[in-house]
Every structure is written in C-alpha cells, then in structure tokens.
Design a protein that fits this description.
This protein is of the alpha+beta class and 634 residues long. 15% of the residues lie in helices and 36% in strands. It has ten helices and 38 strands. An eight-stranded mixed β-sheet has the order 30-31-34-33-35-36-37-38, sandwiched between helices. The protein has a four-stranded antiparallel β-sheet with strand order 2-3-4-5, with no helix packed on it. A four-stranded antiparallel β-sheet has the order 6-7-8-9, with no helix packed on it. The longest helix has 19 residues. It is globular. The two termini are 24 Å apart. The model has no long low-confidence stretch (mean pLDDT 94).
Length: 634
C-alpha cells in the first residue's frame, strides 16, 4: 500500500474529472413495461440533453425508439414528466420542440397526432374502449394571464382534443379502472402546491366518454396531500396520503378509506413532475413499494390483507419508477457506491439484473467518499439533518496542521430532499480535498409533514439557519476549516445560498446556479405551477410585500461582503436571467469579486455536456482563487 502524498486540500489531483464525469453519462427515468419488453427514457448530455425512448426486447437486445431530432419531453407545469405511454398498439409521446403528441408504431417513424399549438400534454392513459387517450392538458392563451389546465381526451382517430374535466387550477394522475368504467384523478388549486393540499376524485364514465357522479374520496379537508392513485387488479383504488403526518399507502374500497400499513415513513416523493411511481402491484395482495426513514429509501413487499411489510435487502438507497408484470419488478435504483441503473428483480427468486447504467465510469473505491448521516441543532430548537462526505482520495492527504474547506449544498425545491446515492458531482469535490455536506434543512421531504411545514412562512429563515448550523456544527467538531466555508445551490437552493451569504457572515464564498435573488420579481414573473408557491413559503403577495423585500438578497447587497460566482441559462422560464443579472450588477457596483457564467441554450437546469463541464470547473477554479489553493490540472 503506497503512502498518500501530502498536499493542500482542494489541490488534489483526481481521476473524477469533469470530462470523465460526463463521458458516457446519461440520465435514466420513466420505466414502463409492455408485454415482455421494457422501455425507459435516457437524457443524453452529448445530444444537448435530448430525451430518447429506449426499448429492451425480451431477447435482451436494446435499441433507440425515438429517432433524432425527436425529444420526449413535455413542458406541462414547466417541469414535465409523464411524457410518454407505451401500449400494445404503439407509443404516444410529447415532443419537446412543438409540445404536440406523436404516435409511433414499433419500427416505424413517429407521426403527429394532435394539432393544437396552444396546448401541452402529459400523464397519458389509454382509454381503449373509446379509442382515445386521457391526459393532463395545459392550454396557453396569449390573452390570458395564466394557462388553463384540464383533463383532456385525445381522439386516436384524428387527434381532436376535448376537455372532460375543468374548473381547477391543476390536474394530475388520471387513472382508468381495470374495467374502464371509472376514472380517478387529482386536483388542487392556488395557493396550494401538491404537497400542501390536493383532492382525489372518482367518477363514472359512460359509453360516450362523459364523466358523471363526480365525488371527492380523499383530501376533503384541503390540508391533506394525495399522490399516486393506482387501481389494484381487484378494482379497489390505492393512493398515498399524509393525513397521519406521513405519506402512507391508503385503500379506497366500497366507500371506505383504510390506511394499508401505518408507519412513520414516507411512501412517496414530492410531485414536482408527472409520472412518479413509488409502488406497484405484483398481484391483488402483493405490493412492492419504496419508503424512506431517516433520509434513506428502502424497498419492501407489502401484504395489505395481513398488514405485513417485509424489507427486500437490496444494496440500494434510492428507488423510483417501479413497475411489474407480476413476476419481475423493474425500477431505477442507486446507492452510496453505485450510480443510477435500470434494474430487474425476479420477485420470487430475489435475483437482480442490471439492464443499463447511467454512467460506466469505473470508480476506484479509494477515491469514494461514503455519506454519513448527521443531525444537529438548529436555531429554532429543532433538529435538522444532512449527509456529510469527508475528503477522500487514496493518493493524497492534507497537511497535518490543516483542515479541509467545506462546501455546503442547499438543495433545490425547496420542497425536495438530499439523498445519499452516489453522485459523481459530489465525489468531484471530495476527491479534490473538499469536505461536503448536503443539507436536508427544515422544509425537506422524507421526515413527515410537520418537518416539511417548518418552512411555511419561513423560507429564507429556517433553510438558511439550518445550512449555517450544519457548517458551524462540522467546524465545531474539528472536521472542517471554519475560515474556508463555501455554500452552493441551484434554483431555490440558489436563493438559500444567496440569503445565507447576504444575511450571515458564516461563509467566505458561494456559487448560485440559476438562483432567486429578488422574491418580488419571482412572485410576479414565474410560471403558473409556482405562481402562488411563495404564498405558503413567505406570505401572500402583495399583502406581505414587506417580507418579500426584506428577504430578497438583491435589496441588501450592501450586506454581502464575500465573492460569489453565478451560473445562468438564458432560456430559463422558471427563474428568468434578470434574477441573476440584478444581483451581479449590484455586486459589481459594490466592487465585490463576482463572476457571471451565462449559457444561451440552457433552460432551468443544465443539460448540455460542455456547459455542465464549464460550470463545474469554473466553480472549482473560483474557490481556488478565493481560498488560495492551486487546483490540479485535469
């Protein structure tokens, strides 16, 4: 065993370069099965982020289904999801460039089904008896302030679009019963977000396709969050709800709602996107489900009739997009030492097969930092949570009289969570000598509704305090250098970053990725899905305009005294570029070290490989200048 070379933290040479991180790296998601074939989406940075539908046949051969330039991605709610449906007769998908629905027979070219340029579509279900698709529609009218959301019926014959349910601000999850006689779906209205209060509806469908006998079967109180309705093969309706403070599984049968398995755990993710599946049926009395406790996800087999849950001991800590044919379970899985992969599990034999991986980068364990769960006291007396990664590199060690710099990550959302699955972007930092902490501040999901609601009215306060507390906790433990603390975040995490840098003196540098700097501008210039999000996070606007101004970093740039680097997509419709540019101008006017890296083709979140590389390397070089270490040449 060789002796590690002593070198300054931050300057270590690492095989986890930006090029290596992106080479062959893809995003995986949206697994669906049809017959003996499996389908999934691949987001390919090398193709400018194009989402390609991939098919794996029963004989093991794999091929691309959607040819270039088709991009399987919808912009309903801007965040999309649920962009395709595989059926026995063909594939239906939303194409990104025109947001129209296309139909494609296997082995054939796609052809356009809808011709409604003012509409977008997502979350498809096939209504075979009536020869139509049912989907969530979103109509954009230039004369209207907000687009109109509705449940749409799309004729398979001519693509004609008919609204079958209207009147609510948002719709999701249309699900047709096995006999085709009932339809379930979810609605919610401003100012609620889907994790605040939603309603689960049920209606009869007549032969002509009209809905009747509409009724709310869950979420009547308005303060219950309902997700993922699914029909059991026996005709009962399951869903996830948090009336017990936790997102548990419920069953609606013969007019009664029953908690299938009460547990202080979350059986669902926050519904930022359509098409999430955290559970699936193997048979009428067997459900494979994923759930999280203390921030880590597990996979379980649930027997509702016995109220029995057994843990499947797989080596993963994150599971998503579950589907099954009764014998095999397919899902996207990842773990602390394994990147995301499409995985097949033989349910009875409990044997797994990896079908595709997000990255084929072969990482030597000597460079791999293992996440450690930490909990610490925050300013409001609550306990906050995070995943801590120590600097790790088999070739290097820090000087004996020095401590590593710390990079604090504030996740986006803010209603989201930091997980502990392998992230090569995190390992990029730790293998160069940085300590890294991914904070699940108050408001994060995975710890129950009460913890999630810690952020109600407190965005910019609780999240910032928890990030500051995480940094101070690690410094007090003697694990990091308290004078070399940096914070980075994207979108809502970018706001937390800028607020922490502006209103606290803990951090010496920061990086904002398409972050919010002006809350007033965000409240008056954002898309419909998040148009009233801030009502819950801060207060109603304009009634509480004072809070918006008080918590906006751009209004208090005189308090910011440390260097900041900004990254922004110029096509971003969620956080428009003017948010970043106002902050950059304010810091330049004050003479503070500031860098602005703009990407003309990017939207909210970077998808192009060259841009991801440039952002990562620029951030590292920026910290090197601020903290005084020389970055190793890759």
């Amino acid at each position: 065993m060789k002796t590690p070379k002593t070198s300054d933290y931050g300057s270590w040479r690492s095989p986890i370069t930006a090029d290596a991180l992106l080479a062959g790296s893809i995003g995986l998601g949206a697994v669906q099965n049809s017959g003996g074939d499996l389908f999934w989406l691949e987001a390919r940075p090398a193709e400018k982020g194009r989402n390609v539908l991939v098919q794996r046949r029963a004989d093991g051969t794999v091929r691309d289904v959607t040819p270039a330039p088709f991009n399987v991605r919808t912009r309903v709610h801007e965040y999309g999801g649920g962009a395709f449906l595989v059926t026995e007769n063909g594939i239906y998908f939303s194409n990104f460039s025109d947001q129209q629905v296309y139909v494609q027979g296997l082995g054939q070219e796609p052809h356009q089904l809808t011709h409604t340029p003012d509409c977008r579509f997502a979350d498809f279900v096939l209504d075979q008896p009536r020869q139509r698709l049912i989907a969530v529609g979103e109509r954009h009218n230039a004369e209207e302030k907000e687009p109109e959301n509705f449940l749409a019926a799309i004729s398979l014959e001519n693509g004609e679009v008919t609204a079958i349910a209207t009147g609510h601000d948002f719709y999701s999850s249309p699900r047709l019963s096995p006999d085709g006689q009932k339809l379930a779906w979810i609605t919610w209205d401003h100012p609620n977000m889907p994790w605040d209060g939603t309603q689960l509806w049920l209606a009869d469908i007549d032969q002509a396709g009209n809905l009747s006998n509409l009724k709310i079967i869950a979420g009547q109180t308005g303060n219950e969050s309902i997700h993922e309705p699914q029909w059991c093969p026996d005709g009962s309706l399951y869903f996830v709800g948090d009336r017990s403070d936790w997102w548990n599984l419920y069953r609606y049968h013969k007019g009664e709602v029953d908690n299938v398995f009460p547990l202080d755990a979350e059986f669902a993710y926050p519904h930022w996107v359509f098409g999430l599946r955290s559970y699936t049926f193997v048979d009428v009395d067997t459900i494979i489900c994923t759930f999280t406790q203390d921030g880590a996800w597990q996979l379980g087999k649930l027997k509702p009739s016995r109220k029995q849950l057994s843990i499947l001991g797989l080596p993963y800590s994150n599971y998503s997009s579950l589907c099954s044919d009764g014998k095999t379970l397919w899902f996207i899985g990842s773990g602390p030492t394994t990147s995301s992969a499409v995985i097949a599990l033989a349910v009875e034999a409990q044997e797994t097969e990896i079908l595709n991986v997000a990255s084929d980068f072969d990482l030597d364990p000597a460079y791999l930092a293992r996440p450690q769960a930490i909990s610490f006291a925050s300013d409001d007396g609550q306990t906050a949570h995070a995943w801590y990664y120590p600097p790790t590199n088999g070739d290097f060690q820090g000087p004996p009289d020095a401590l590593p710099p710390l990079l604090v990550k504030s996740h986006g959302g803010p209603t989201a969570a930091a997980g502990n699955s392998l992230s090569l972007k995190i390992q990029y930092w730790t293998s160069r000598g940085f300590a890294y902490v991914d904070v699940n501040y108050g408001g994060s999901t995975g710890y129950g509704r009460d913890y999630r609601q810690r952020l109600n009215g407190q965005w910019g306060i609780v999240d910032v305090a928890d990030c500051v507390s995480a940094a101070r906790y690690l410094a007090d433990q003697g694990l990091v250098d308290g004078e070399q603390l940096a914070i980075s975040g994207g979108s809502a995490g970018g706001y937390t970053t800028l607020a922490a840098l502006t209103f606290h003196n803990t951090f010496k540098a920061g990086a904002s990725y398409y972050g919010v700097s002006d809350l007033t501008a965000l409240a008056t210039d954002t898309h419909k899905f998040e148009a009233r999000y801030l009502d819950g996070l801060i207060g109603p606007y304009p009634e509480r305009k004072d809070l918006y101004e008080r918590r906006s970093p751009v209004n208090h740039a005189e308090q910011l005294t440390c260097p900041v680097i900004f990254f922004q997509g110029l096509e971003d419709k969620v956080v428009p570029p003017n948010q970043t540019e106002m902050m950059v101008a304010a810091l330049k006017a004050k003479g503070i070290k500031v860098e602005y890296v703009a990407f003309p083709e990017e939207e909210h979140g970077f998808r192009i490989a060259a841009n991801i590389k440039k952002a990562l390397e620029s951030e590292l070089a920026f910290y090197g200048e601020v903290f005084g270490f020389t970055t190793a040449a890759d």
